[in-house]
Amino acid sequence: MPNIKSAKKRVLVIDKKTERNKAVKSEMKTEIKKFLAVVAAGDKAAAQTAFQHTCSVIDGAVTKGVIKKNTAANKKSGLAKKLNAMA
Known about the structure:
The chain is mostly helical. It has helices at 5-41, 44-63, 69-85.
């Protein structure tokens, strides 16, 4: 445990940021799972809507700095392949 006041504050700030990042990452993973469930069900229209929502959540994670831009592009590309394979 740190002794210096500024170091103590940094520990508190990092804990807050960690919780925020966990929440964003968890939401992103949940949306991806929902999308994959819709794809498995085979409903093309619902999958299209879920894909758009999932992409916006992934982009939000990039904006907040939780994941990198290329990681997001890779995830969205994989989801788009699954969506296009339904046709």
